[in-house]
Amino acid sequence: MSAVRTETESATALSVQALRKVFPGTQALKDVDLTVRFGEVHALVGGNGCGKSTLIKILSGVVPADAGELTFNGRQLPAAELTARAAYELGFRVVHQDPPLYPDLSVAENIALGGHYPTAKSTRIAWGEVRRRASELIERFRIDVDPGTLVRDLPVSVRTQVAIATALQDVKDDRCIVALDEPTAALPAAEVGLLLSTARRLAEMGHAIVFISHRLDEVMAAADRVTVMRDGQVFAEHRTSELTEAVLIESILGRRADEIRGQRATVTAGEPILAVSGLSAGPVIDVSFEVRAGEILGVAGLLGSGRTELLTAIYGGLERSAGEVTLAGRPLRGGMGPTIEAGVVMIPEDRARGAAFLDMTVDDNMDIGVLNRYWRGLRFRRAQMRQDGDALRARFGIKAPSGSVEMRTLSGGNQQKTILARWLRRDASVLLLDEPSQGVDVGARADIYGAIRTMTVAGGAAVVVTSDLEELAQFVDRAIVLRNGRLIAQVSGEELTAHRLNELVHTQSGKPS
């Protein structure tokens, strides 16, 4: 999918030389060298904690480097001297996964906020000029949207397009270096192609695109070159035209792709442990299914199909208008507190807001559900708790300098593993997981599902919602499909493939239209 380039377009946009950064307890970047060219999509990949985020923060002037040289479009400066203002003036832009747009303002108003509001002689806002400028920008970036549309009414992919256009609105003839940080992580599968096309189109306009993603199929589809980071260093660089996804996985993890594939249950699942009967709640309508001990059940469906609401209703966080949920034959009632006590726990999609205590330490995040275990009369066994924390971090492969660092310093994958450790040490019977691998690398994904499988082999069960149909086909034992709040299909065995799930999710009949 590489674009044809002229000699000018292949000029160096960004050069990073011997970049170093040390945080307390860890060396985040070790002599990093990187070259990005105008007119290309250059992917930056690596496991959680490999240094990608630190590198982007340094390039955007948010975090100072300790050593190294940076060159932006021919202008060189010491990395330690780069500020956010200087990075912007040198043409470096970052568009994050969750772009900072105002949902209750229109597209035109958000674009104006990203630059400035034009005013008339009376100092009042010149709304006609606001709309004209927005229309020109929308046309320039070929965004299919009316400038008067409220941002809250836009698909997520179009919001990201608007954020990109807003970031580049002051760029006329000059070319920029645009870092797209996990731009597709929160997108439904149907919208991913639009963002990948946008990245390619920006490169064809002459910009240099740094594309950061954990989704390796997208990297292979969109990028011209790939730089792999591992443990704060550049490990390898590849041309995607000479690369396979299996080789890329091995380059990232140091393990072969077949070593991280999921395994379906090797024993027959036991008796039903969780039963949902005629459940209606919010958009969920009359859904019934069972999950057996030892089983991982997947839930597929488009955004808005009721997947998240189904989990939330089982968990007690959404009022049920009809139906019943039972755990080992006993009804679950009374909200989230009694549900947790009964042994059903949930890790939501937005772990930063709904599950992680970011200002607390890693160990405190793991311990918070079991503090009562460490009381002996009036004495609290803190040393034992620390010892158990060390063992848990090792067991779950949580990469952290120590258990005393703040949760916010961990990568997304390590945060997810910490939350998983919290609940599994409570001996939960059923795990409900909403997009458990969102924003985590392929290795952390395998670790997460490995921990889930260990729990189910011991007699528990799990229900997993994910938009990644390849992931469902790879890791779960059986899947149900929701459409418009209703359960329309169940698949298992040889029928459980990404292709079949895609048919069921996107077509009315389950057959290609």
From TrEMBL:
Keyword ATP-binding: yes
Domain of life: Bacteria
Keywords: ATP-binding, Nucleotide-binding, Repeat, Transport
Record flagged with keyword ATP-binding: yes
Domain ABC transporter: 14-256, 260-509
Matching SUPFAM superfamilies: P-loop containing nucleoside triphosphate hydrolases (SSF52540)
Pfam families: ABC_tran
Protein name, entry field: Monosaccharide ABC transporter ATP-binding protein, CUT2 family
Organism of origin: Cryptosporangium aurantiacum
